[in-house]
Amino acid sequence: MKTIRRYPNRKLYDTEASRYITLEEIGAFLKAGGEVRVVDSKTGEDITGVTIAQVLVGEEKRTRSPFQGYRLATLLQSSGEYLKEKLAPVATIREEAERTVQRLIQSETEEVREFLTGTSRAIEDFQRRADDRFQTMLAAIRSFAPLRRDVEDLQRRVAELERRCPGAAVESEDPARESLAARRTPARRRGRKTP
Questions:
Q1: Residue pLDDT, tens place only, 151-192
Q2: Nearest-CA neighbor of 37 among 8, 6, 59?
Q3: Is there a contact between 61 and 27 (Cβ–Cβ < 8 Å)?
Q4: Contact 51, 11 (CB under 8 A)
Q5: What is Dmax (Cα atoms) for the chain?
């Protein structure tokens, strides 16, 4: 849509083409199917209707067709009823299109809402399963804590027994454990002579 400014000197300025424009040029643009919006440069008021009426008056002056004068007189006499009558089918089509668009938007909205609800449920279900698995793993880890304390307690007891009974041989499949026991047992008791 082309925006045109009307200045106090009644000049019309095409903001799109950055030049002054005449009523005849606006008429030609409208006949070609273009749309215009005319605003007062001082007040910003939309004066498109007045400007288009001026375009029509200019066209009437140039053509001097009695038929067009009759048509304009009919429009004035009917107080716009003629236009309403001719444009009623257009208005009905427009209203039906608006209802269809609203219906499509609502159905799309419902589909989106259903999708989001389903997705939300899936996420909640996944989160619940992950929480359950985490709780199971946490419980397993917690069950190891007392076992670890028991193992440490047993290691302390074994060390204490080894300290009290230096002659007791410790048989173990763990080489680190055997070397620990060998270090704790005096050399002469292991069958070696001391120098």
A1: 888 899 998 888 888 766 555 555 555 555 555 555 545 555
A2: 6
A3: no
A4: no
A5: 145
Task: Please calculate the CA angle 79-85-86 and round it to the nearest 5 degrees.
Answer: 110
Answer for the pair 41, 5: CB distance below 8 angstroms, yes or no: yes
**Which contacts qualify for 23-30: CB closer than 8 Å, 24 or more apart?**
23/51, 23/54, 23/55, 23/58, 24/55, 24/58, 26/51, 26/52, 26/55, 27/55, 27/58, 27/59, 29/2, 30/55
Cβ neighbors of 81 (< 8 A, separation 6 or more) are none
Contact 47, 39 (CB under 8 A): yes
Phi-psi category of 21—alpha, beta or left, where left has phi over 0 and alpha has psi -120 to 50? beta
Closest CA to 26 of 62, 2, 61, 47: 2
Calculate Rg over the CA atoms of the chain. 49
Domain ranges of the chain: 2-77, 79-189
**Pick from 59, 63, 76: nearest CA to 22:** 59
Output the pTM of the full model. 0.37
Helix, strand or coil, per DSSP, at residue 64: coil
